[in-house]
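During the second year of the project, the team shifted from modelling isolated chains to modelling whole assemblies. The rationale, set out in the original proposal, was that interfaces cannot be judged from single-chain predictions alone. As a representative example for this report, we include one of the complexes processed in the last quarter. Its constituent sequences, exactly as entered into the pipeline, are reproduced here:
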Amino acid sequence: ISNTCQFFSIIVYDEECFQGRHHEFTSECCNVMEFGFETVRSLRVESGAWVGYEHGNYQGHQFVLERGEYPQCDAFGGSNAYHIERMTSFRPISCANHRECRMTIYERENYLGRKGELSDDYPSLQAMGWCNNEVGSMRVQSGAFVCYQFPGYRGYQYIMECDRHCGEYKNFKEFGSHCQTPQIQSIRRIQQ
Amino acid sequence: ISNTCQFFSIIVYDEECFQGRHHEFTSECCNVMEFGFETVRSLRVESGAWVGYEHGNYQGHQFVLERGEYPQCDAFGGSNAYHIERMTSFRPISCANHRECRMTIYERENYLGRKGELSDDYPSLQAMGWCNNEVGSMRVQSGAFVCYQFPGYRGYQYIMECDRHCGEYKNFKEFGSHCQTPQIQSIRRIQQ
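Output from the structure prediction step:
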């Protein structure tokens, strides 16, 4: 049980269960339609951690993709709190390579209020002593994390990286292009 | 950031967003209809980790419930790989108290084939060196784990406890009453 990742590789298919047209990507893709895909219905992550986006140009709902098999949209689109039927763009999470993941969460926006230092996986922030179902702002010092709306890694996902936005997310509108609420109840590290 | 759990408490509501009739439970409930609920549309876990079931008598799809707020069915029903519209029974996961979680996974049923020793959270078993999208059988030596069909804690959930079935799950039909496939691609510990 060791980290075997040396590079990034994802294979996408336009039919479910790894059927139909397919293409392997080893770096970011800002619009899969440019490669002749109408949509992606299944995918296999061969190496590395990736983030997928509903729309082109890394817009819309986002979701983490780790090594393994996703035989239909339901398998990668996240929680049934929202229904993503498509993945149009995706990119590697390059800073997820860090052995050390560290972030600070703040009760209020602009890094104000009570704060918590995170360096592990937290399926329930409240069980870990965070007395709130929201996070107002956050800073990622190293590595990459995925934040979820509900406990147990469910609901909307927001990928937070130390090398994007300088790791600074000063209010919930910076959490993601679709983010309409500061509700965050579970957070975990992303590793390759 | 410490373990604050001393007992078990869950409050269920028959309307979304913590509205309507409600009831607090501090131990297992084999059928919420016996308490006058037609269904549960939102819930709040105040303390402890619980497992919820689609049907009465702890049957059907299962899903872990950790401390926090679940304002609608979508928030607790798991992944959109399946659509659970109800939670009819639920019980505390008492052995999730263990500080040490240990389990062994086996490639084939009846504890045969290659094996892996787990004591951490694994969002992708394949990234950790498990060269398969399936697990044939497993033994939980201590604590409790939740196994998921897809990477990143998505899809069907199976709660595995050291003090149920003697911690022994010798083939996929013992993973859960609804289990139709040995496909498991992520596993994590359950803690209070």
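The longest helix of chain A spans residues 73-76. Chain A has a mean pLDDT of 90.
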